[in-house]
Amino acid sequence: MIGTGYVGLVSGACFADIGHTVYCVDKNEDIIKKLNLGKPTIYEPGLREIIKENYRSKRLFFTTNISEALKKSDIVFICVGTPSKKNSLSVDLSYIFKVAREILKFSKKKKIVITKSTVPVGTGDQIEKILKDKKKFTVISNPEFLREGEAIRDFRYPDRIIIGSNEKNSLNIMKKLYLPLINKGAKYFTTNRRGAELIKYASNAFLATKITFINEIANLCEKTGINIEDISLGMGSDVRIGSRFLRAGPAYGGSCFPKDTKGLVSIGDKEKIDLSLVRSVIKSNENRKKLLLKRVHSIVGKNIRNKKIVFLGVTFKPNTDDMRDSASLSMIPYLQKKGAKILYYEPTGEKKEFSNLKNCKFYNQIHLACKDADLIILHTEWDEFKTLDFNKVVKNKKYKLYDLRNLYNQDEMMKNKIKYFSIGRPVFN
Predict the structure, then answer these.
(1) Which residues on neighbouring strands pair with residue 27, listed in sequence order?
(2) Which residues contact 75 (CB under 8 A, 6 or more apart)?
(3) Which tens digit of pLDDT belongs to each residue from 161-219?
(4) Residues tagged active-site
(5) The whole model's pTM is what?
(6) Cα–Cα distance for residue pair 7/294, rounded to 1 Å
(7) Of 18, 158, 273, 412, which is most buried with the most CB atoms under 10 A?
(8) Pseudo-torsion of CA 151, 153, 157, 160, nearest 10°?
(9) Which SS3 state, helix, strand or coil, does residue 179 take?
(10) Dist. CA 244–CA 222, nearest whole Å
């Protein structure tokens, strides 16, 4: 596994856990040092235990020596980052191609080279050109579908395993690799290499579209006195639609949806295909961040100078420490610039993204953060936020609560005389 980021580390640990011998490679010595001490460099429930067990059983190794790891391996997974280029929709593939050149340089025997990183259509073709010798290297696309916070379960019980290969001879080896999961009922699906690359992009773009769609419907619900949860339930009960990803909330974030929707549009532009729907999804998601801030002003007033605004959770979703494209990254700096005093509590700890902001302070206990709040913004739906007694936690009797995840019941909030605001529901305060 070349690259020990989210995909490489989780996949590597889980492959070891189903019986394979795995070498995880990273050029960052600090990361490898921590991993060899049994300390995961990402937050993912259950990962620490899997790493420790398989490291102790000598099925999982961590190294900076790519040459040595390649010498001992038959299958090589490329798991490095594919970020969006700055000020562009297109994808930066420089890390992918650098790894391909290193595989060429250090490989002495036949290898199956698998792209697990999310890459645009045709990337496998480019990797194949770099590797030159088709008899020595087989290039396969095997996209990952791991949800942050649920990744261990998603690996063990996947919805589907997608293998994209232009050479049928390699499919038996790939099936053997995943056999413990296939034997437990995982769907095993093969296609050509470009097909697998596009399945990943198309899947993420569709899920992002569902989120954006329900957020836009939530805007309409707020204006028409309808509860968005009734709409989500009514729609999601249709088996053709399904209930997942129909929960209204902030703009989507994370490592996948923002960059993959942009990447898909970039592929369309390259092929002169106007993917107008996906382009609209990207625009709507950006507009949502502005709409949430507008709503904050409508709750606390135009002048928010010296108002104490508390964020409960700042990551893009619970059970992860991932801050990438989280709505908090745009909301907190904006509110701070407007003169508000920002306080936040986050179960995964203080965030470097806010360390240089004035009047922005991290607290490691909920009651300390909320004590004198004027406004509490429930940003991330961590379990520990779902049963809070706000009237006991907050000493300021005039505080207001803005629930971006609809964690609480409006009737209960009214009964407790809490000034409560949520997403896509009629406003009673």
Answers:
(1) none
(2) 111, 112, 114, 173, 177
(3) 999 999 988 999 999 999 999 999 999 999 999 999 999 999 999 999 999 999 999 99
(4) 256
(5) 0.93
(6) 36
(7) 158
(8) -20
(9) helix
(10) 21
